[in-house]
Amino acid sequence: MIIFRTLLLYVVVLFIFRVMGKREIGELSILDLVVFIMIAEMAVVAIESPDASLIDSLTPMFILMGLQILFSLLSMKSKRFRDFVDGKPTIIINKGKVDEQAMRSQRYNFDDLLLQLREKDIRNIADVEFAVLEPSGKLSVFPYDDDKQEGSFTLPIVLDGKVMRENLQSLELTEQWLVANLQKRGYITPDKISFCSYQNGKFYIDEMDEKRKS
After folding, report:
1. Residues β-bridged to residue 88
2. Strand, coil or helix: 52
3. What angle do CA 84, 160, 150 make, to 5 degrees?
4. Which segments of 102-200 are extended strands (E)?
5. Could you tell me if 96 and 144 are in contact, meaning their C-beta atoms sit under 8 angstroms apart?
6. What is the DSSP letter of 133?
7. pLDDT tens digits, 62-120
8. Is 93 exposed, middle or buried (0-12, 13-18, 19+ CB in 10 A)?
9. What are the strands of the beta sheet with 193-199, ordered from one edge?
């Protein structure tokens, strides 16, 4: 019985994780992590309790799977819900300047920063132009070019039809400037734009498909 339950629950957990989608372990959101831990714990309890009903053990696991899929769909449709569940990336170093206020808001200290820079083979903070703390806790680092000339990295200024005002401010751009440039390109409002970025003097614009518009 224990062997049967072990094999069955192994297949069930594998199926549930496969249905919930593909994400690297380091990119799991807090919601993903909580659901995965709960499902794994329920599977262990079900294996260790051969007298318990399999239906009673499997039901909450499939409920969690359904909730995870529902939340994923909501995250795809709502930027606000996605930010609430997954969090937002935070710029820790902006054009070579450490943003201590951003670090405090994330309860992130210089020891954390230096550790993650060393993991990226960065020896000196002065060599970093941008560093972004991702929602997963991973630090994305963009060093200066060899000649110390400033570059840039992709920040969405329109996402899911919404203007990203914080990103515009980071790029030292205004919403009025954005609206004027979008209108020149035939977009009266950003509602139909899925993703828009401005990098190295060039716009990249991706329109929403018909399914998302409806």
Report:
1. none
2. coil
3. 90
4. 128-133, 139-143, 156-159, 162-163, 193-199
5. yes
6. E
7. 999 888 888 888 877 777 787 777 778 888 988 888 888 888 888 888 888 889 999 98
8. buried
9. 162-163, 156-159, 193-199, 202-207
